[in-house]
User: What shape does this take?
Amino acid sequence: MTNTTDKILDDDALGKISDVLDQGVQPLYVESGGWEEIWITCKLDAAICFCLLLLFELARRKTSVYLCRLKHALPDRKPKDVPKRHPFAWVVSSSSLSDDQLRHCIGLDAYCAIRFLMMCRGLFGWTSIVSITLILAYKHGASHLEGFYGLTLGNCEHVLEDRWRLWLAVVFTYAFTAAAIYLATREARHYLRLRREYLRRGDGAGESPQPRCSVLVERVPPRLRSDAALHQYFAALFGHRDVHSAVSFVDCAHLEKLLDARDAAADAYAWRSEEGGYGYATITSDEGLSDLAAILSEKEQAVQKCQESIREAKEARAAEVLEAHALLPTTPTDSKLEQQPSFNQAASKARDASLQAISFLGAVAGLNEISRRYANEDGASSTGVVTFYSPAVASDAAQLVLTARRGDVHVSLAPPASDMLWPNVSIPKDEVDERLGAANVGLFFLALLWTPLVASVQALCNLEVLAHYWSALKPLAREEKYESLRILVSGSLPVYIMLALLGALPIVLDAVAVSYAGVKTKSAAHAYVSSRYLYFQLLQIFVTVASGSLLSVLRQFLDHPKTLLDLLGKALPGMGSYFLQLVIAKVLFSLAFELARPTALIGVVARQGVTRSKYFKVPARVRRRLRRPPEFDYGSYLPDFVLVVLVGTIFAPIAPVVALVCFAYFAVAVKVYSHQFLYVYVRAYETGGAFPGPTLARFFFLALVVGHLTLIGHLILLDATHQAVALAPLVLFTLRSRLDVRRTFELPARYLDRENAVRFGLYETRRANRHATPRRRRRSVGESSSDEKDDDLLAVDYYIQPALAAGPVEFDAAPQSEMVARAP
Assistant: This one.
């Protein structure tokens, strides 16, 4: 009898699997109740949170893990005080700074992320207060549902009796949207002011002004692929006195391979030369120290020979191109005459410069034999950087149409040198765009495979299903005394699996953007990852959770367009309990994990146990590479912020309890990430808010629109057509507000406007005003705290490729400081 019963139960389990995989039934859907699952999830997450916070409080004096930014940041960028030792002192230390002090310490990029969290904290703080009214109204609905779902809009299913309660949801949505748009507009106005100040003055003392004065030039034609020709081209367009320098990038792939081989040989030599050391090279290699030294010398000579050949090729190319156009510099005039130029000499010089510019631009218009000869030789690439003496001229150059020839000379504001992905700088722009398009097609097919994969994995998060394959789990799946464990597995395990699967996506997307597509900057890679990562999160919500198959959703939508509204209105509101547990996990687990950094702590302890051992000596050059400070990954963190906004926006009018937990998340996140930016993360680059500000604004308005469509779909399913029609204009109003914010604040913030440039004298460069006051001269590149001249602030070799600037191997040199925003 028992065997027969077990067989029947096993058949039921298999039937559930087939329903999930074949028919698209949701494994995570909870039909009723929910409070017991939520309470068990809270207890589990609270226990994990307590352990992580205890670990943090006991180990936060470990400076290489929790205070590592203090070792690498510029002196004036460090916070004044270090958190005291008593518990939760870190909250007070990160809250004691004003907004201006916080922005100065962490930079405008990180400040934009913190301001976004503050804005969402204020929005959901107000929503939490108002949502109490909705909870009370929904609780007394005519459907009389029990448990968690008795506090949702689904409890007001009888339209005739609960029509006024449905109108409450509509009024609440209008008020919520008005508050959200008001806060977003205020933040956009604040962002525009800070962005203009950054473009005009820079990021403060200690930072190079060169990125603000430079433009990135792509699609450079073959005839201009040299430093001298590129410099001459922009000098002909903007004047010689405004152009500081030009750098034409070359393909250094072969040189970089030689440098990697040289570094490997240097590591082997360093391991072997350690007195009494037992390194990897000592154990596995039979070469003696002299043999390793000979190999290292051979690699060093190969690197130097390759560097010299590249430099000679660039110089020869520049000389022949300029000689062909008769544009080599003329013999310098007498210094006395140059100091006291007469009117005729000045006029003659201006006339010669004009004729030279006309001659050069005319020669550029057509390809000649030299251009054809060197079009694909010497590793010359179609990318370069031109630096001007003034940020105003650089901004003008980035906005002007320089040529009427299609697909020729594309100019944009240059990123800082710390933002460049140097192995990719020589890849043509058209090739990068083509690869990005192909990557998008590949990600679409990944989405087709991703959704049934996640649905299958989540279907197995059921003890009855697992018991079919592992007989030892049958008592857990069927006995009443294990009811709490079954609830814990079915409620918490899917949440953590979803977080784990989503956590692996940014790694894949970053590899696609950097290694396959070949984007040229870290910020561009983060922008690509953040947008695609957010789309996958939307896919996870709307397809995987609601249906389990993207193909089935598309097929149903094509057959019955109203299916999309059914998906938005029926499936997502029914998942309120699941998403509430998801946000609780992010509050108690994700933020505590971010603060405690257990993986980094384990890595540092293991590294120090090896490097400080008296039996295992590690060379200094290897130890310096292991001490690389952590960097903030905007590509994965920003979509995580927006995911909570998306969940809160969807469920604020439908399941108001979720809004309370979203407020708790943002209230804690502000404190946690303020501490991390101040004491842990070192800036990998600084775009002056150009990347995180507009990206977060776009994601925020997208979350609002998705929330509106969800509520409209749910109201249509409840036959509340009047309420749904009343909400329809809100979608158009939100989209119009997004366009207004972009047109009024984001687009003007991309470049330095000419009115402010003239107002603050940013066109008055050093060459134009040689006898100007030091204060006036500094305005050409921004304010400075010292008496440095402009020539000291702008460097010819700022954008030189690290492979070309790499010097010989040094073993006894002091470790180089990893200051933020320093040129390589």
Q: What stands out?
A: The longest strand covers residues 380-388. DSSP finds 34 helices and four strands in the chain. Residues 159-201 form the longest helix (43 residues).
